[in-house]
Description:
By secondary structure, the protein is an alpha/beta fold. The protein has a single domain, classed as NAD(P)-binding Rossmann-like Domain (Rossmann fold, 3-Layer(aba) Sandwich). Helices cover 45% and strands 17% of the residues. It is built from 8 helices and 9 strands. The protein has helices spanning 13-24, 36-50, 64-77, 102-130, 151-170, 190-194, 199-206, 214-225; strands spanning 4-7, 28-33, 54-58, 83-86, 133-138, 176-183, 235-238, 243-245, 248-249. Strand 4 (83-86), helix 4 and strand 5 (133-138) form a beta-alpha-beta unit. The radius of gyration is 17 Å and the shape is globular. The protein starts with a strand and ends with a strand. The model has no long low-confidence stretch (mean pLDDT 95).
Amino acid sequence: MKRTVLITGATSGIGEAIAHSFAQNGDRLVLTGRREERLSAVKDELESTYQATVFTYPMDVRDAELVATICQKILNEVGPVDILVNNAGLALGLEKFQDYVTEDMLTMLDTNVRGLLLVTRQILPQMVEKNQGHIINIGSTAGIYAYGGAAVYSATKAAVKVLSDGIRIDTVATDIKVTTVQPGLVETDFSLVRFHGDQERAAQFYKGIEALQAQDIADIVLFIANQPRRVQISDITIMANQQATGFTFHREQ
């Protein structure tokens, strides 16, 4: 039976890879993101490659009014959401807290925490009504192991883990599952965004390390979603082979 899977931040990186995994699995996809052109391009690729059914809705998860409007539009036009993947998120900067740009801090907080809250609050009630659903929140090893220059980013990802746990408690009497996926170092546009488009600095971040790839995380997300009813994976941490904790790496010279 085809499931309806809503993925936020689906225009690139882990979100786009997750879309490919679910499309290949035969599920229906609802993709959101801020870049309308990229949404269209991803939709075209998924439809041509997998003959998938794909719906796209441009949405900035930081905008409460827009999130409410778009999520209700999805529920009315597409129907109930079986799986919600809260993937939209970002890191900006790598400075000491006392030197951080306030706008960058607030953007991370609004995207990584506020956005997850807003989308989940719109989608969860229909899951409760159906007594069925799965919420998969993309956290980070930064939410477990804080590291220098990432106090705010780490705090937002710690919030993702605790929010997931709290929602799981609040829905424990239902057949709703809640999972936190906590990737380590994944080579995507993540660092390019973090360093505000500085390609050289972003490339240096991965130098000497065989980082995880977005598809590695996507494969694990699909595995989580395909477990039988009795199995709930509450949280899972995935790190690169030469990554010991959140920011402890061995780099080849």
